[in-house]
Amino acid sequence: MSSKIIKPGNAAADEFELQVAQALLELEMNSDLKAQLRELHITKAREIELNNKKSVIIYVPMPKLKQFQKVQTRLVRELEKKFSGKHVVFVGERKILPKPTRKTRAKNKQKRPRSRTLTAVYDAILEDLVFPAEIVGKRIRVRLDGSQLIKVHLDKNQQTTIEHK
């Protein structure tokens, strides 16, 4: 098992996760990112297909997310070369705690922090997805059938770097 992937509960990594971990290990061995990548690792990786385009989502532990974001632009560029044009995105491994009810209040002595609520986690994941750019506005359009369309407005300065994604 690669040292670049550490799964919670010592679960076994699947083939794609090992492939991503190996790519990170190769980048650490022969690039100028060696010092920054040495102490970094991932928790899981997923490949999804949306509109006939494949994307790689790499989950990183929350304490290491800031360190990943320091080298993310160069790391994404190198990983996109290795995975032949697939979009690569780094997302923090966040936990959603259930809404406290009368029954669960006895078990949980502590109050649920705002950062563990469903909406806070979803907003933070959205920020991770568009990372080099900043979200400057959000519009939610509720259609007549009840479905929602969320439009996210990004900063104009980084529009060229992230628009193709």
Automatic annotation (TrEMBL):
UniProt keyword Ribosomal protein, yes or no: yes
Keyword Chaperone: no
Superkingdom of the source species: Eukaryota
UniProt keyword terms in alphabetical order: Ribonucleoprotein, Ribosomal protein
GO molecular function term, any single one: structural constituent of ribosome
GO biological process terms on file: ribosomal small subunit biogenesis; rRNA processing; translation
InterPro entries with a match to the protein in the record: Ribosomal_eS7, Ribosomal_eS7_CS
Cellular component terms per the entry's GO annotation: 90S preribosome; cytosolic small ribosomal subunit; small-subunit processome
Similarity field: Belongs to the eukaryotic ribosomal protein eS7 family.
Protein name as it appears in the record: 40S ribosomal protein S7
Species: Acanthoscelides obtectus (Bean weevil)
